[in-house]
Amino acid sequence: MKILAFETSCDETSVAVVEDGKKILSNIISTQINIHKEFGGVVPEIASRHHIENILPVFTEALEKSNCQLNDIDYIAVTNTPGLIGSLLVGLMFAKSLSYANNIPLLPVNHINGHIFSSFIDNDVKLPAISLVVSGGHTNLYYIYEENGKIITDLLGETLDDAVGETYDKIARILGLEYPGGPHIDKLSVNGEDVLKIKKPKVDGYNFSFSGIKTFITNYVNNQKMKGNPVSKEDIAKSLQEIIVNVLYDKILTAIKEKDVKTILVAGGVSANRRLREKFSEFKNIKTDQNEQIEVHFPKMEYCTDNAAMIGVAAYYDLKNNSQVEQRKQYDVDAIS
Ligand code: KG4
Ligand code: ZN
């Protein structure tokens, strides 16, 4: 089964062709990062205008690279939520038109579901698993298991305020670093010391809170500046890295103790973070309930940030979970921000 997938929820225009939910025949990503850099973040109106310019060439390239024709395509998948409304609409309208004109059923896909299923690309996931989705807009923790042939994704917890990527980007801005700030902080932290030793926020259950960490660092930087003291970007970067990675690690450790967990899956833009990857490899030292080693999986870099391949894979599992396939041939589906 071949799925042609579209992703335009934020500042990446991406189109992919996915075969049988795991083989990526093509995955073309056109990023607008350089355009939004000068504004210090994504400008929604500019993003949607660029999606309009990019979507046709990206679609043409994706189809060509996959060696497929439109009549080889069984389904068209498209991100319809959550995201920037103007950006979502460009992908959705393009996909709907293509679907209608070529009589190919349309599958709306949730963007976060896409990130979860990016972990299933080139990877036979052993379930049950814990999935952590860490991106610019989301910090969600899921318990994923199989029941009656269906893959269930139960939301265990989420951030009550800022997302992890958002925290990185906001602190980067305070330090005068370019957008997106995550990769810069990641790099700087290598030469820093955890001088701030920020305390873990007290948040019950599996939820997260990062806004206090942001306030703590903002106040520290302002105080140092007022006193005329130098501020080490490297030390702040290292301190931020440590507190964030430790908070995420601890929540997952709790889940491992409370549940049957065979695999840890990490997805979303922040999963590119090197300290996160290093620290999470420690989970491999913990044994499962069956006395096997816990597996830890990070997607390849091209599947960490927004991409259409993960949307195609998520659509495949949506289909598997729902036998009422024909009911999905619908054009009344809306973009929801
Ligand atoms: O998943 P993504 O590409 O887009 C959203 O759906 O938000 O994630 C982008 C986020 C940005 O906040 C960016 O700063 C962060 O991922 N990011 C990182 C790293 N690379 C990207 N954060 C920390 N360390 C990194 N190496
Ligand atoms: Zn994303």
UniProtKB/TrEMBL annotation:
Any one cellular-component term (Gene Ontology) = cytoplasm
Q: Which GO terms describe its molecular function?
A: iron ion binding; tRNA N(6)-L-threonylcarbamoyladenine synthase activity
Location(s), subcellular: Cytoplasm
Identify the residues that bind Fe cation: H111, H115, D306
The residue stretches assigned to a coiled coil in this entry are none
Pfam families given in the database record: TsaD (PF00814)
Cofactor remark: Binds 1 Fe(2+) ion per subunit.
Recorded catalytic activity of this chain's protein? L-threonylcarbamoyladenylate + adenosine(37) in tRNA = N(6)-L-threonylcarbamoyladenosine(37) in tRNA + AMP + H(+)
Boundaries of each Gcp-like domain copy? Answer: 23-312
Q: Which UniProt keywords apply?
A: Acyltransferase, Cytoplasm, Iron, Metal-binding, Transferase, tRNA processing
An example GO BP is:
tRNA threonylcarbamoyladenosine modification
Which residues bind substrate per the record? V133, V134, S135, G136, G137, D169, G182, D186, N273
What EC number(s) does its UniProt record assign? 2.3.1.234
Q: Does the keyword Cytoplasm apply?
A: yes
Q: Which domain of life is it from?
A: Bacteria
- Give a short account of what the protein does: Required for the formation of a threonylcarbamoyl group on adenosine at position 37 (t(6)A37) in tRNAs that read codons beginning with adenine. Is involved in the transfer of the threonylcarbamoyl moiety of threonylcarbamoyl-AMP (TC-AMP) to the N6 group of A37, together with TsaE and TsaB. TsaD likely plays a direct catalytic role in this reaction.
Family assignment from sequence similarity: Belongs to the KAE1 / TsaD family.
The protein in question is named: tRNA N6-adenosine threonylcarbamoyltransferase
The primary gene name is tsaD
